[in-house]
Specification:
The chain is built from nine helices and six strands; from the N terminus they run αββαβαβαβααβααα. It has 236 residues and is of the alpha/beta class. Helix 4 links the parallel strand 4 and strand 5. The structure holds NADP nicotinamide-adenine-dinucleotide phosphate.
Amino acid sequence: MGGTSGIGYGLAQRLSHAGSTVVVGGRGVHDVTDLDTVRIDVSDQASVLRARDEVLERHPDLDMVVTMSGIMLVEDLRDPAHSAQAETTIQTNLLGTIRVIDAFTPHLVARGSADIMTVTSGIGFLPFPLMPTYGASKAGVHAYTEALRAQLAGTGVQVTELIPPAVANAGQEKLNPAALPLGDFLDEVLSLLTTNPTPQEIVVEAAKRLRWAERDGTYTALLEQRSQALNTLPGR
Ligand SMILES: NC(=O)c1ccc[n+]([C@@H]2O[C@H](COP(=O)([O-])OP(=O)(O)OC[C@H]3O[C@@H](n4cnc5c(N)ncnc54)[C@H](OP(=O)(O)O)[C@@H]3O)[C@@H](O)[C@H]2O)c1
């Protein structure tokens, strides 16, 4: 789910070209004409269950679910009005991920051999202060993913966390001139998956400094550097 644009759409295209049967989900499915689609709003439980039923009816042997749906919002925490963005972010990124996983887990476990891929962000490991709730939501998805993996151990369902760095789409290219071109990111992800098809985490080279900042002792300096972006907020 979350495959109607950007990273999700690119990954779906690559997997489809490689011979997989792929269904992409999102609210804007009309924008996708070259892949099978399902309409889903992950912030709405009824929509998630409807989409799940539709997908399993079309593909009763479904063996992988990717929870890619996500929004990346800039927030000014000195303005309490940001709480609307905070709630939408948690509804979509964290609760949306949980809803989709809950909807498909019984099917995947019953199948006895399947994959769940969650999507976090380098920002879940090293905050980008312009997007506070986004970072919190992704740190939450990381913790949830680790617990999910432990709970599904022995069921045949593998759990993988994709941890992208800044990738040049969805406005990130404006916030971060060093954002990785989408094609380069996808090339590296596919190459890592070819080497190891069931990794616990997919961390491309550019994401490593974020994923491991705390371990590497670079966390404080990098956070200070990333806080410079707050100067772009109106009135700062
Ligand atoms: N780009 C980056 O720099 C970057 C870095 C790290 C992590 N990520 C993560 O990677 C994932 C994909 O991001 P992207 O860069 O490819 O952004 P994107 O192009 O904006 O894609 C976001 C996807 O999420 C879907 N989505 C958003 N709200 C939804 C909702 N309520 N229900 C269902 N689907 C919803 C969108 O579909 P509809 O609008 O059609 O609903 C779209 O398919 C996100 O989880 C993002 O947090 C991105």
